[in-house]
Every structure is written in C-alpha cells, then in structure tokens.
Amino acid sequence: MSMTTNTMSTPAPSPSGIFLKDTLLLGQPAQIKCVEIGGQIYSISGGPIRTMRLEDEWHEDVKDPAAVIEFLKDNRDVRPDMFTFWQRLPDVQPRYSFHQEWDHWAALPVKSYDHWFNHHIKSRVRTSIRKSEKEGLVVRETVYDDAFVRGMTEIFNEAPTRQGRPFWHYGKDHAVIKQQFSRFLHREDMIGAYYRDEMIGFIMLSNAGRFGLTGQIISSIKHRDKATNNALIAAAVNVCEKRGLEHLVYLYWREDSLSEFKRRCGFEKTSVPRYYVPLTLKGTLALKSGAHRGWKAAVPDPVKDRLKQLRRSWYARSTGAAE
Q1: Residue of 110, 274, 300 lying closest to 205 (CA atoms)
Q2: How far apart are CA 280 and CA 21, in angstroms?
Q3: Domain that residue 307 falls in
Q4: Share of the chain above pLDDT 90, in %
Q5: Same domain as 253, residue 140
Q6: Alpha-carbon distance 98 to 220, whole Å?
Q7: CA angle 75-78-81, nearest 5°?
Q8: Confidence of residue 323 (pLDDT cuts 50, 70, 90)
C-alpha cells in the first residue's frame, strides 16, 4: 500500500508565490500547486473546492496555524477556498477553536515487541508468524540497492490488479521504480521478507518523528500462504521499538478489505482532530453543506461496499485474473 502523493523537486515560485512541484499521484508523475509559508510547503488541490494543506502533513505539524490563515487572508492571489490541518499522534486532544472533525488512523501502540507479540495480537497471527519462520521465511532490515529494487519490481509486476482495483505500479521497470521510490530514503527503513533467497515482500517504514508509518507494504501473491505481511508488521514493530517510536501507523482506518488484517495485527481505530478553516464564500458554503469532505463522504457505506464489489468483479473479468 502506498501513500497518495510523494513529492520530488521544487521549482522556483512565481510572483504570486505559487509554484508547481513534481510528485506522484496515484502512482503516476504529476504536478501539484504549492506555496511556501513560514518555511513550510503547503499544497493546493484543484477541483470545485480549492483546499490547502501542509504538503507533508504525515511528517510535519503546522507550526503556526493562525499565521498561515492571516497570510492567506492578506494574499488574494494565493487564497484557497479552504485551509485544513490536523494534529498528529500522540497529540490528539483538540487545541484550536476552528471547525473540527475527526480523522481516523490505524495506529498500533508500541510498548515493546514482546508485549505486542504476547499480549496485543490475535493468537492466529502469532501462529502464522511462528509457522512462517519454521518454513524458512526470513525478515530482516536491509538497504535500498539494486537487489532490493529488483525484488520490488518482480512483486509489483505479478498482477495488474490488487485489492480489486488497478495496481498503480504494475508495468513499471527497474529504472522507473528505483527513481520513484528513492525520494525519501533519508527517513525510511527498508525491511525485506525472504524465502529461499527470493524477496517476497517488503516494507518501506517511514520515520515520522513521533511514529513509524507504513508508507509501502506489499508481498508476493504467489507466496500468500507464507503470512508475509504479518511477519513484516512484526519486524516493523521491532524497528519502532529500537527507534523509540511509540506508535506504528498503517495510514487511515477504513472498513475495507484490510480492516480485519489490521485488527488481527493489533492496530486500533485512533481519532485525531482535523480542522477546516473556510477562506472564501465558496469555502463557507462547502463547510455548511458537508462538501468539504468530498463526494465519497456523502455515499452511504453499504453503497460503497456494493460499488467496491462490482468494481472488483469487473476488473477480475476484464483481466482474467482473480485475487
């Protein structure tokens, strides 16, 4: 699973202060509009409601929200319709008076590896990890070199769909993958899972200062019987303990195909406050109507589930491969 956007280079700003930044969006090269305020980079989304947020919000905190808002009010050329920001773990008690809602993360509290293994996970996960070790699965910290990238490339190109949707990185070659995944090596730990010297899974575990973040976790489909992802999570917990990180975060908590896996591995639904500050009339109307959350938030969960089932079936028929 990969995060939605990953930033690359930063061109010089225009006279308005807005500049384009190279990134990956849904796994493909793209550009996003950004502005620098108080030494931090903020991205501005397109669409009907132009929303600004800290570009690297998983890894940074907004230093001074009031100063950002004042800057936007004083700079008409930059002003979006909405400014949004959140508080990161472990800072989950609301501290600001702006309109606030809750975002839900999948977070695993890390006391120690032993505590996680013996008291925090389901017994079937412990059994699966022990079984995979007996069968020869080896999970260890490694480095981002050509061998690691070759393993990534082989795993990515196993199937055109994963979790019932087209897989972002299918069809990419070694050179493309090496370049696209090398941007944040300064804050990532590589963890590889090996069976008979073949890499069959990996995590690129990002250090977000306060927690570890599973920016990319994936394993080989043909070796799904090895419980590779369970073993990778175990290794990630161990790394978090060594790095002094008190949580391991698996992005958002959603009731989807991954939710039961997260529960079994000890992840919990953890709510963090997110704030929305309208800056235009359009932004105010969007906040009142709920449009600031996007169209997906307006679709009832049973309808979403049915649409996902239809999508999964359609892709399975169109590609001739079931997952």
Answers
A1: 110
A2: 25
A3: 5-88+274-312
A4: 74
A5: yes
A6: 45
A7: 105
A8: very low
Angle value at C-alpha 55, between 54 and 57, nearest 5 degrees = 60
Distance CA 241, CA 111 (A): 7
pLDDT for the residue numbered 133: 95
Contact 211, 250 (CB under 8 A): no
Assess if residue 40 is contained within a domain: yes
Residue 294: CB partners within 8 Å, gap ≥ 6?
none
Instruction: Say whether 48 sits in a helix, a strand or coil.
Output: coil
Provide the CA 232 distance to its chain's centre, in angstroms.
16
Pairing of strands 247-252, 212-219: parallel
Structure-block tokens of residue 126? 């412990």
Q: What is the pTM of this model?
A: 0.87
Q: Examine the pLDDT at 46 and tell me if it is beyond 90.
A: no
Asked if residue 261 and residue 290 are part of one domain, the reply reads: no
Residues 120 and 242 in one domain: yes
Percent of the chain with pLDDT over 70: 86
The residues near 115 (Cβ < 8 Å, ≥ 6 apart) are none
Q: Identify whether 98 is part of a domain.
A: no
CB 268 within 8 A of CB 107: yes
How many structural domains compose the chain? 2
For residue 227, being part of any structural domain is answered with yes
Burial of 268 (0-12, 13-18, 19+ CB in 10 A): middle
Mean pLDDT of 140-147: 97
* 38 assigned to some structural domain: yes
